[in-house]
Amino acid sequence: MEHRGAGTSERGEDVMAVTEQQVMEAIKPIEDPELHLGIVDLGLIYGAEINPQPEGDDVKLTMTFTSPFCPYGPQLKAMVQRNLASLPGVKNAAVNIVFTPPWDPRTMASEDCKIALGIGGWEEEEGQGPGGDIESQR
Q1: Of 16, 50, 89, 129, which one has the greatest count of Cβ atoms within 10 A?
Q2: Residue 107 structural domain
Q3: Has residue 63 been placed in a domain?
Q4: Does the residue 129 lie in any domain?
């Protein structure tokens, strides 16, 4: 992985530019408190914008919650911001919360999360489940 110099820190140390991979690794351990699944794997992260600056990078992360009324929203936002701010080379960390597009685990979550949520492993069609056609089992 190639790093480009981003400048010098306030302490006079050389600072390397932060990468999107580092951003995702920093927030990967954060779990949704209700679902107990990682916010990255759930697909709650919509993007990261990294703007290199001479004194350290500005990182802006765009994310959503599982619901606009998520009771843990402020807590999740604070955890993400804290983890981003702790990355070496980050001077400013911002978290932007959006609800468009709305979170849909069927299209946004990882396969492991879909299975954990009970929506993976089979084609979901009306009358279909993991055992096949429901009517034929009666």
Answers
A1: 89
A2: 5-123
A3: yes
A4: no
The CATH number of the domain where 61 resides is what? 3.30.300.130
CA distance 93 to 77: 11
The reply to whether 100 falls in a domain is yes
In a domain, 138, yes or no: no
**The total number of structural domains that make up the chain:** 1
Q: Could you read off the pLDDT tens digit of each residue along the chain, which spans 138 residues?
A: 333 444 554 545 555 789 999 999 999 999 999 999 999 999 999 999 999 999 999 999 999 999 999 999 999 999 999 999 999 999 999 999 999 999 999 999 999 999 999 996 555 555 554 544 444 444
CA contacts within 13 A on the Cβ side of 123: 5
How many residues does this entry show for the chain? Answer: 138
